[in-house]
Amino acid sequence: MAKVVNYISEAFEELKSNVTWPAWAEVQRLTIVVAVFSVLFALATWGVDEMFAKALEGFFNWLKA
């Protein structure tokens, strides 16, 4: 248990003293960029899913006829 506590303590010390954190304005800007790309990727995935669903529906309707 002492090893785990020591590891966590050293990890927090590393985060406080050796990590360079970005400025708050940059964090906000990058968060918006990630959100926009996430929405675009979700819309692209939805579009491809709809396209394949319609293609499969057409294929199976063609088989039934």
Automatic annotation (TrEMBL):
Its main location: membrane. The chain crosses the membrane at residues 30-48. Keywords: Cell membrane, Membrane, Protein transport, Translocation, Transmembrane, Transmembrane helix, Transport. The keyword Cell membrane applies. One of its GO terms (cellular component) is plasma membrane. InterPro entries: SecE_bac, SecE_sf, Translocase_SecE/Sec61-g. It comes from the Bacteria. GO terms for biological process: intracellular protein transmembrane transport; protein secretion; protein targeting; protein transport by the Sec complex. It is a single-pass membrane protein. Pfam families: SecE. One of its GO terms (molecular function) is protein transmembrane transporter activity. It is found in: Cell membrane; Membrane. Belongs to the SecE/SEC61-gamma family. Essential subunit of the Sec protein translocation channel SecYEG. Clamps together the 2 halves of SecY. May contact the channel plug during translocation. Component of the Sec protein translocase complex. Heterotrimer consisting of SecY, SecE and SecG subunits. The heterotrimers can form oligomers, although 1 heterotrimer is thought to be able to translocate proteins. Interacts with the ribosome. Interacts with SecDF, and other proteins may be involved. Interacts with SecA. This is Protein translocase subunit SecE. It comes from Flavobacterium succinicans. The lineage of its organism: Bacteria, Pseudomonadati, Bacteroidota, Flavobacteriia, Flavobacteriales.
